[in-house]
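can u do me a favor
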């Protein structure tokens, strides 16, 4: 899992590339810790290049959503493939996380 971070005004965008599975959770957690240390509470996760998410990855996203909500922040997902969207729906996360077609669309809603 590779994570590219960029910031546009008060919004942070994480572009994930690879698998969000057991073994990659440390990189994901570390990226969120870094953003938290910077006081970043508006985060967009771009899933265009994520080929697979397992239960660990779903748990990481859920933990990030909950942490941001505690801080008064928001997390949005963009460019989610059908398989991942189905997993989010089965776990109930789809109703908790806004999903957008593009980064620009998500930014406009934040």
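np, heres the sequence
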């Amino acid at each position: 899992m590779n994570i590219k971070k960029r910031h546009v005004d008060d919004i942070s965008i994480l572009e994930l590339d690879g698998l969000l599975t057991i073994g990659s959770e440390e990189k994901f957690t570390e990226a969120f810790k870094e953003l938290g240390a910077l006081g970043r509470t508006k985060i967009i996760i771009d899933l265009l290049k994520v080929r697979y998410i397992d239960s660990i990855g779903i748990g990481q996203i859920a933990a990030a959503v909950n942490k941001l909500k505690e801080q008064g922040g928001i997390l949005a997902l963009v460019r989610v493939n059908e398989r991942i969207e189905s997993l989010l729906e089965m776990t109930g996360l789809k109703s908790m996380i806004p999903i957008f077609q593009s980064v620009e669309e998500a930014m406009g809603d934040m």
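Strands lie at 2-8, 11-20, 42-53, 74-78, 99-100. hope that helps!!
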